[in-house]
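explain this:
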Amino acid sequence: MNAPRPGFPASLCPPASPARALTAPAEPPLDASLGRSGGGRSGDGAPELQARAASPPACTQGVATVVRPCADGGWWLRVDAREFTAIQAASCLLTPAVGDQVWMAADSGSAAFILAVLVQARPGRATLTVDGDLELEARGGKIRIKGDAGVALETPATLDLRARELVAQAERARFSFTELRALAREVFASFQRVTHVGKLLELLVDKVTQRSRHSVRAISGVDLTQAGTIDQRSEGDLLISAERALINGKELVKMDGAQIHLG
């Protein structure tokens, strides 16, 4: 780490000292320190002596390369010819990936932390990861999420939206629900055309009011109306046509008109 790495200013690379060097000449070679003479392999194909990793550099910081993930959630890092484990710092929300160049810091040879991801090996996809709940808050402002290719919200649990006013605008909207329940005190909808397709339609209301210029119904089966009183009024003609017409009045059948034609 005596010389700055390409692409990074010299001010970011502190001068190395015997106590802070990223490579320790006095230590045995990497193969010996990792004990690879056994040649064993763990489940992920890495040397089985991952558990006995080389300790991180003592009290230093610098650029490292992500080698592979650890089973416990950490990462294997490489500096020059030395490999050691490090954990992702709480302030580093961007999840590292294999091949990324990261900025690491070691504490007295006991622990190493990934502070930031400097260069992604495969740019174009980034993942922000936190443990536990995550809350985004904009004090006195707005939070805007924008994606040129789209925005997707996904959860296996409950998606909760709460707002004083909800505004949605799109050229097309599609909804697919196994079960839908809507509760509103007042609903106003304006459409140019509405089509309902289903097997059963039930309306349970106190009053139904319908106003239209024309009304057409085509029923292939039975059209049954049950009411206490039926009042049909027409300003023009009233036409009832059937192969068989039955009018049954238990007490009274009355027909009144200026002219009545039968037969």
